[in-house]
Every structure is written in C-alpha cells, then in structure tokens.
Amino acid sequence: MSARVLVGVKRVIDYAVKIRVKPDNTGVVTDGVKHSMNPFCEIAVEEAVKLKEKKLIKEVVAVSCGPQQAQETIRTALAMGADRGIHVEVSGKDYDNLGPLQVSKILAALAKKEETSLIILGKQAIDDDCNQTGQMTAALLDWPQGTFASEVVLEGDKVKVIREIDGGLETVRLKMPAVITADLRLNTPRYATLPNIMKAKKKKIDVVKPGELGVDLTSHLEVLRVDEPPQRQAGMKVETVEELISRLKEAGRM
Amino acid sequence: LKHLFPAVCGAVRRGSRRLSHVAQLPEVHRMLRQTCRDFAERELAPVASQLDKEHTYPGRQVRELGKLGIMAVEVPESLGGAGLDYLAYGLAVEEISRGCASTGVIVSVNNSLYLGPLLKFGSEEQKKQWIPPFTTGEKVGCFALSEPGNGSDAGAASTTAQLDGDEWVLNGTKAWITNSWDASATIIFATTDKAVKHQGISAFLVPMPHPGLSLGKKEDKLGIRASSTANIILEDCRVPKENLLGGLGMGFKIAMQTLDSGRIGIASQALGIGQAALDCAADYAHKRTAFGAPIAKLQAIQFKLADMAVALESARLLTWKAALLRDAKQPFTKEAAMAKLAASEAATFISHQAIQVLGGMGYVTDMPAERHYRDARITEIYEGTSEIQRLVIGTQVLKEYQG
C-alpha cells in the first residue's frame, strides 16, 4: 500500500512541570519552562510508525505548527521513526492565537497537498485540553473520523477503529482517507533510541508558511483572562449517611 | 562562557551550535538526555529500591538499555554502537544513575572499562570478536585490575601470565570486580615480566565462563547492591596468545588511560546519585511542615539545598569539561580526576544532607534518601580513591609550573 500518514505533533509544556499563571493574567509562564511533545501526540506517532513497520503504510510525515522550537518536537518524532517532517512556521501573535480551528485548516491543506490517506493526531493537547483539532480537520476535509482510538486496524481501503466512549467501546469502520485521534490505551510509545536519534539528524524537515498553504490564521476567539484554579478547600467529615445527604442538599449538590 | 573552554572551542565550532555546550547542549545530546531520563523515571526508579533490597542484577533493564544504544555509546556504528561522544555518554550515565545507581555503574563499566580499552588498544580482529556482542545489553564485560594485595598500588600486580607455547597461562586473584557475576568477558591485568615492575604488566582478554577462571562469593556491599562484585580467581587459566590486548608490557599504560575515561563515567554516576538525593530533599522540603509552615521556608533548609546545588553543579561542569576535552582529543587526565573527585565528594555530601533534611524519614527505607547515601559512598573509592585523584591532580598542577 502506498499510503502516506500525516501525524500532528504539538509542543506543549512538559506534563511534570508545575504551571504558573503570568502576573498579568494573560496566560501561563512559558519562558524557560521545559517543553516536550504532547503525550497523546507521542501515542499518535507510535501508531503511525507501527503501521509502517507492519508495511501497511509507506511514509510517516510529522507536522508541527509553531515557532522555531517546534522543530525539536518534529525531531523527536523523527527519532521515533517518522520519515520526514513539516514545520509550519507560526510565531508571535499568530502563535498566541493559534487554536484548533487554525491548526485544522493547516492540516487539511497539508493533507490535500501531500496526498494523505490517514491523519493521526492525539485526542487532545494537555495544555488547552480542547479535543477539537481531529474532529475539525475531518469536517474541513469531509473525511470520516475515528476519535478516542484504543485500537486501529487497517483493512484494505478501510480502517477499523475501536473507540473509547463513556459506555465502553465502540467499533467503527471508516473508508480512507480518514482522521484518527489517539487515546491513552492505543499503544505505549517507544523511547527514541540513540541510533535513531542519530538517524533523525539526517531526516528532512521542510519549513512552510501558513500563507503558502492558503490558510488564514485569524482567530475569532479572544482570551480575556487566565486565573489559577481555586485553592483546594479542606473537606469536612460527617458521622452518618443521613448527614452526608443533608449536607449535600444544603450545598445544592443534590 | 566560551572563554572558559579555549581548548574545546574547536569542538564547539565543529558542533552544530555557536553557543557553548555549557549554556545549551546540542540537540542530539538533549534528546539523548531526555530519552535516558524518561527511561530512568519509568523503568529504573520504580524498581531501584527492590533491586537494592534483593541484590538483583537488572538484566531486563540492561537489555533495554542495549536497545537504546546506551551500552556502547562511543562504539562506532560499524561495530554495533551508537557512534556518539563522551559528553553524550556522561549525560546518559548521569540520567541512568539518577534512577538506579547500580544500573549506572553496570553501564559505565561496560562502556568505559571493557569497551573502552578494546576500542583504543584492540586489533581489528579483537574488536570484531569482542565488541559487537557487548553492545546490545545481552552481554556485559568487566575490568580486573585490583587484587586483594593491591588496589591503589596497581603497579604491584601479583597475578602472573606466562607464555606456554601458543597460550598465555594466568594465575592469581583479582578483587572487587564489578559485574563479575554477570559478565561474559573480562580484561585481566597480569605481570608478564616482574623485573621491570609496572612496565611488565600486560592486559588479556578472557571470556567468561572459562576453564581456570572461577568467581569468589558475591560481596555483600553497603550500596550499589544490584551490581555484582566479587573476586576473580585464575588457576592455570589458559587463553590463546591472540588474547593479549595491546602490546606486551603495555598493561599499566592501558589501565591508567582506561581509568582516565572511566573517571568521567563514575563522576557521571555520582552526579546522578547527587541529583536524585537533591530532588528528594527539595521535594520533601516543600511538603513537610514544621513550626506552622513547609520547612522550605526555613533558611537552614534553604542554605543546605543551596550548598548541595552548588556542589552538584560545579561537579557537573567539571565532568562536562573533562568529557569535552576528551572529545576534542585534548589531554584530560587532570580534569577527569578533578571531575571524579568533585562529583564523588558532592554525592556523599548531598546524600548526607538529604537525610538531614528528611530527618527521621531519611533514615528509613520508605524514602530513597538512605539508598542514595549508601550508593554514593563507593564513588569516592572505586576507579581511583579520592586520595589517588588528589595525587593525580597535584602532580598535574605542579607539572604546569615546572621550571
């Protein structure tokens, strides 16, 4: 199969870092803070590389939208086994306003340009928790989507996706080209081995501007204010179940 | 900071960035460090306490590290290695040791003390035979220099090797050999010509197991308990004459040069232990409350953490400098000794103070502080005691001022 898979990888603040809100409440502190690949994007890359290792697809292309540092994230994807990368250069104000709608437009344009059969994304990013990019990308392309994937099986020109939903698992069969978003249990991402890190140095990263793809980055959302979550209040102990119920009713929780 | 590294500016310019390696590591090194850190956090730290309690060799983890390329960082790709430099190796050992100090020394001994001399002094044939199987983590090697009668006095090797036809016959006992119970090969230093003292020592490659080679009991150590340490006993142990490593009488030189590089590995191990202890103490300081507030608010604690951090970071810079000098093919003996001395003393200081910060909790096995304390201690002893390091540094310094 001469299929090409596009994998989106997002550079986010590392999951282990303690987030701090900027003193002017316009956002969170990112300067000098450790960043890494969004964990769900790692899972997406791993799935794509596994498909390639099974010889079910031919090429894995890692894409990231952002400033120069986004190339580090692409390089990590290359070290995991992606074949080449595309860095869509977005910086400054444009980057601050970059959200799922803009990224979806970019991915849709790239998918058409690169003759893609499958787009695999993480289900959401751990910084904004939007959980929208995969869905919007599919809609813009008018492609079927299999989100929250915990299993992906290629079947000829179709792909079977087992989705994690509230009630359990749902199986859908999509006709490719399609969009899949990875959930936690899809796989365990591999470590970038030292030989692969070395190989990744030689792999190509193309730089492209959103304008070249005909994408307008205008955002219709404005962030008004960012605040810390309220400090956790102490709980209270109750003696009986009856007391628990009456307290919950008092607090309007029942 | 560039002016601090005149000798390595060449290496830096040849590297991918204009910035000094100190301000920001090159991308490959950053990626490698992250991989090792992730591996240590997920695969080593959670089991380190158990490995220590049960004295278990981390075989599965060593094989995984082999797949990552960490068991043979400097070995060229043609021989199955990762083909990277000593700065990368130092970073890897530090991050691995931060998860588990025993695993760190297993990695270090295989890289620096076994593969190192083979790369530097082995013939093409020897390299092809003795290197590739030891790059994957399936097999590890060890280095047998010390004896019950001489550690620091390496020139007084009483193990002998006599040529009998086409074979060398080895007799004697080696002591304190790290990896001995888990190794598949060893480099043994033996006297071939007693008359010329340390110029009469030669190095030999011996497979393990092998007739005439037996192992003493596993030492019951204070720390790094997941790595095996034992005597290697040679009784008419015969190896083909092709197993001579380097030239006849070159053994002492091979040992000394090997230890120079090995010191960067042990310094890195000490850095990892120190970092783990510092992490433990700083995290605890935020959480433990006393006198109505987290103890992090107390200057006594802040000053301790400051001293610990300074000791660690200075030792780290010395270690990186030694690695960078070695990578630039500049002399690095003094710097490697300084790195090992500083890092090992930093590790013992930091782990000592970490227990102090944790108070009673530092003294029990529920917290890793006591294990870091026990693991750190050996770094001031093996691959050259702190006293030997001071000798090396002192003589080097004086040489610079010789009239």
From TrEMBL, chain A:
> Which taxonomic lineage is given here?
Eukaryota, Metazoa, Chordata, Craniata, Vertebrata
User: Which purpose does this protein serve, as stated in its record?
Assistant: Heterodimeric electron transfer flavoprotein that accepts electrons from several mitochondrial dehydrogenases, including acyl-CoA dehydrogenases, glutaryl-CoA and sarcosine dehydrogenase. It transfers the electrons to the main mitochondrial respiratory chain via ETF-ubiquinone oxidoreductase. Required for normal mitochondrial fatty acid oxidation and normal amino acid metabolism. ETFB binds an AMP molecule that probably has a purely structural role.
Keyword Transport appears in the UniProt entry: yes
Write down a Pfam family by its short name: ETF
Q: In this protein, which residues make up the domain named Electron transfer flavoprotein alpha/beta-subunit N-terminal? A: 25-217
Q: Which family does it belong to?
A: Belongs to the ETF beta-subunit/FixA family.
Under the heading CDD domains, the entry gives:
ETF_beta
What's a single GO MF annotation on this record? Answer: electron transfer activity
Q: Which PANTHER family match?
A: ELECTRON TRANSFER FLAVOPROTEIN BETA-SUBUNIT, ELECTRON TRANSFER FLAVOPROTEIN SUBUNIT BETA
Q: Provide a GO biological process annotation.
A: amino acid catabolic process
Instruction: List where in the cell it is found.
Output: Mitochondrion matrix
Q: Which InterPro entries match?
A: ET-Flavoprotein_bsu_CS, ETF_a/b_N, ETF_b, ETF_beta_N, Rossmann-like_a/b/a_fold
**Stated name of the protein:** Electron transfer flavoprotein subunit beta
Q: Which GO terms describe its cellular component?
A: electron transfer flavoprotein complex; mitochondrial matrix
**Location, primary (coarse class):** mitochondrion
- The membrane-spanning stretches of this chain are none
Oligomeric form and interacting partners:
Heterodimer composed of ETFA and ETFB. Identified in a complex that contains ETFA, ETFB and ETFRF1. Interacts with ACADM. Heterodimer of an alpha and a beta subunit.
Q: Which organism is it from?
A: Scleropages formosus (Asian bonytongue)
The alphabetized UniProt keywords are: Electron transport, Mitochondrion, Transport
TrEMBL record, chain B:
Gene Ontology MF term list: flavin adenine dinucleotide binding; short-chain fatty acyl-CoA dehydrogenase activity
> What are the annotated GO cellular component locations?
mitochondrion
User: By its UniProt entry, which Gene3D superfamilies does this protein fall under?
Assistant: Acyl-CoA dehydrogenase/oxidase, N-terminal domain (1.10.540.10), Butyryl-CoA Dehydrogenase, subunit A, domain 2 (2.40.110.10), Butyryl-CoA Dehydrogenase, subunit A, domain 3 (1.20.140.10)
Q: Which residues form the Acyl-CoA dehydrogenase/oxidase C-terminal domain?
A: 249-397
Q: What keywords sit in the KW lines?
A: FAD, Flavoprotein, Oxidoreductase, Transit peptide
Acyl-CoA oxidase/dehydrogenase middle domain residues are 142-237
User: What is one GO biological process annotated to this record?
Assistant: butyrate catabolic process
Q: Which residues form the Acyl-CoA dehydrogenase/oxidase N-terminal domain?
A: 27-138
SUPFAM superfamilies linked = Acyl-CoA dehydrogenase C-terminal domain-like, Acyl-CoA dehydrogenase NM domain-like
Question: Which chain positions lie within coiled-coil regions?
Answer: none
Q: Which InterPro entries match?
A: Acyl-CoA_DH_CS (IPR006089), Acyl-CoA_Oxase/DH_mid-dom (IPR006091), Acyl-CoA_Oxase/DH_mid-dom_sf (IPR046373), AcylCo_DH-like_C (IPR036250), AcylCo_DH/oxidase_C (IPR009075), AcylCoA_DH/ox_N (IPR013786), AcylCoA_DH/ox_N_sf (IPR037069), AcylCoA_DH/oxidase_NM_dom_sf (IPR009100)
The EC code for this enzyme is 1.3.8.1
Q: Which reaction does it catalyse?
A: pentanoyl-CoA + oxidized [electron-transfer flavoprotein] + H(+) = (2E)-pentenoyl-CoA + reduced [electron-transfer flavoprotein]; butanoyl-CoA + oxidized [electron-transfer flavoprotein] + H(+) = (2E)-butenoyl-CoA + reduced [electron-transfer flavoprotein]; hexanoyl-CoA + oxidized [electron-transfer flavoprotein] + H(+) = (2E)-hexenoyl-CoA + reduced [electron-transfer flavoprotein]
Query: What is its cofactor?
Result: FAD
* Role description: Short-chain specific acyl-CoA dehydrogenase is one of the acyl-CoA dehydrogenases that catalyze the first step of mitochondrial fatty acid beta-oxidation, an aerobic process breaking down fatty acids into acetyl-CoA and allowing the production of energy from fats.
| Family under the similarity heading | Belongs to the acyl-CoA dehydrogenase family.
> What's this protein's name?
Short-chain specific acyl-CoA dehydrogenase, mitochondrial
Q: Which organism is it from?
A: Scleropages formosus
List the taxonomic lineage: Eukaryota, Metazoa, Chordata, Craniata, Vertebrata
List the gene name. Answer: ACADS
